[in-house]
Design a protein that fits this description.
Blueprint: H1 10-25, H2 31-44, H3 48-61, H4 67-86, H5 90-104, H6 110-123, H7 127-138, H8 145-161, H9 164-173, H10 183-189, E1 217-218, E2 240-245, H11 257-273, E3 284-286, E4 292-294, H12 308-311, E5 314-319, H13 330-347, E6 354-356
Parallel strand pairs: 1-4, 2-5, 2-6, 3-5
Antiparallel strand pairs: 3-4
Helix pairs in contact: 1-2, 1-4, 2-3, 2-4, 3-4, 4-5, 4-6, 5-6, 6-7, 7-8, 8-9
């Protein structure tokens, strides 16, 4: 059947439909629901043409004057939607499934409708519609493997849409790991960025290298930092760098350097008073203009990487701001790149020992 979303197989979905029909049809079995069972039996055996005929007949004949008739007609359109998916006709499936959606809203079959609509929209790469229906199905799925698979697809779709926070939330629900059965879908939803092939190097005469100005670090004295308390350990030669952001939900608007100084004093007071730390958790902080501010003296071990062990020989750098959903300003980002490179060169720290705060 090619690429499939396989959230519910036909046999599993059939079990759901039969159980619903059995409950509503008790004690007398409704003829239309019995016909729907035959339609699914034909579909299971691979006879799509016969299944279409049975479902179409129920969709036309079932009376809309009763709840039972409405349910039967909705289940018939659901069956027609499954037939079209089996026949590799997602556009036709969508037409029938949307009719089923209107008739089965609030019924136990709504979960199946949502999943199959997401399947159809994924096949034609209508990512936003697929995401909407997957979220509708997710609300009905109980804890378990099916729910984790649904969450995994939602994490890919939200990552594609640039909603990193929601993508991370669904990724965590999915167990925080890749699902091999969705490797092809991952490639389609998140295609790899094309690699730029560099042209062959030109032979040029060596030119004198420009002198790059050394990055200036604004000292603690400039923002009138309080003294470091005694509950601190000395740090040996650094071997790691961890990059953070301060992550506040809302920050004061920084108009001048004085605003940054006030912020640093407030942050130091919070870390010392409320967290009981010896000083600011970070060794360096970078503001939106790209200025580097000295935080905790680098001769002391920081309090930024989660535990005393992970903080050992680990330089902590924080970008001032919250960058969950957007990139840092260009000046801030450029300074970070230069500063990390400078520290790596100074302490001979490999690229593999530069971490983000999530790691």
């Amino acid at each position: 059947m090619g690429l499939q979303v396989k959230l519910l197989g036909v046999s599993l979905a059939l079990g759901i439909v039969v159980s619903i029909a059995g409950c509503i049809g008790a004690p007398a079995r409704d003829a239309n629901l019995t016909a729907i069972d035959r339609g699914y039996a034909a579909l299971e055996s691979g006879n799509i043409v016969r299944a279409r005929e049975i479902f179409a007949a129920v969709a036309k004949q079932a009376p809309r004057s009763s709840a039972r008739g409405t349910l039967a007609q909705g289940e018939a359109y659901l069956g027609l939607g499954r037939c079209e998916l089996a026949a590799q006709n997602p556009a036709g499936a969508i037409v029938n499934l949307q009719r089923a959606e209107a008739l089965l809203a609030g019924s136990p079959s709504q979960q199946s409708v949502e999943l199959l609509l997401s399947d159809a929209f994924l096949r034609i790469e209508k990512w936003d519609q697929a995401r909407r229906h997957l979220e509708g199905a997710f609300a009905y799925l109980a804890e378990g493997y099916q729910r984790r698979r649904c969450a995994y697809l939602l994490s890919l779709l939200y990552e594609r849409a640039g909603h990193d926070r929601k993508a991370r939330r669904y990724w965590e629900v999915a167990g925080g790991q890749e699902l091999p059965e969705y490797a092809e879908w991952r490639q389609r939803i998140l295609p790899p960025r094309p690699q730029i092939v560099a042209p062959p190097p030109r032979i040029v005469r060596p030119q004198p290298q420009p002198v790059v100005a050394k990055l200036k670090v604004i000292p603690r004295s400039a923002w009138k930092a309080k003294k470091t308390r005694g509950n601190v350990n000395r740090m040996e030669a650094p071997r790691k760098i961890t990059v953070h952001h301060t992550g506040e939900e809302s920050l004061p608007k920084f108009r001048t350097k004085q605003d940054v100084k006030d912020y640093l004093r407030t942050l130091q007071r919070s870390h010392q008073k409320h967290r009981g730390w010896a000083d600011l958790g970070y060794h360096y902080l970078i503001d939106k203009w790209g200025n580097i501010w000295e935080g905790r003296p680098s001769r002391y071990q920081g309090a930024h990487a989660g535990s005393p062990t992970t903080n050992q020989r680990n330089i902590g750098i924080a970008l001032i701001g919250n960058f969950e959903d957007h990139e840092p300003p260009r000046a801030q980002w450029n300074t970070l790149r230069r500063f990390v490179q400078d520290l790596r060169s100074r302490y001979r720290i490999p690229t593999s020992a530069v971490y983000s705060h999530r790691k």
